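are you around this afternoon, could really use another pair of eyes. what follows is a protein written twice so to speak, once as letters and once as structure tokens for the fold. i want to understand how the tokens follow from the sequence so walk me through it. anything you notice is useful, everything is just below.
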Amino acid sequence: MKESLKSIASMIDHSLLHPTLTDQELLAGCQLARKYDVAAVCIKPYAISLAEEALSGSGVKVASVVGFPHGCSRIEVKLKEAELAIHDGAAELDMVVNIGKVLSKDWSYISDEIQSLNELVQSRGVILKVIFENDFLPGDEFKSTLCHLCNTSKVGFVKTSTGYGYIRQLDGKYDYRGATDQDLILMRRECVDFIQVKAAGGIRTLDDILRVKALGVTRVGATATESILSEAIKRGYD
């Protein structure tokens, strides 16, 4: 069955998180998201109210981030961030785990972090997406364990990356892999069925979306939303 433009748009969280984006650019991004009726706008925390007003009456959800992009804040700070975001109108929150604690294998801490955030947001009718930042995690053990902790806490989504997890490459330059097929296959396999998988980092084309959807991904984070959906229109999606 051929995809429709609506089905493609309904997978996209239009990302408005780059630190240089001005209020005018954030507003334009919300208007773009409204035009294409995407799933959500993922916007910088201070601008949640701006997005809620710009998207009022549309089907586009307002999402934001917690502990972004490095995940290093104390649990209490992440909880306060979440409370403020929900108060301002966020319907979904993408939270970065404490990556240093993950690499330390302090699974008790990570379990408490995920559980406490999820309990808070679920009590307010909000969806939690847990960002692993897979580029920082060597091997599959860390990713698998994170999936299992998310299973226990019954979060809404697991997510590959922030899109800002740059690591030093062999040539000395900084880059990131983002959402790799290998990681997406692992995350879909290790998570229970009711937890959805969000691919973020490097999703730039319509073919990227179609590829990851075939792997079980239901949501993607993208800044190239307009070019992706314009390509879908060119190909005859309606």
Remarks:
- The domain at 5-234 is CATH 3.20.20.70 (TIM Barrel).
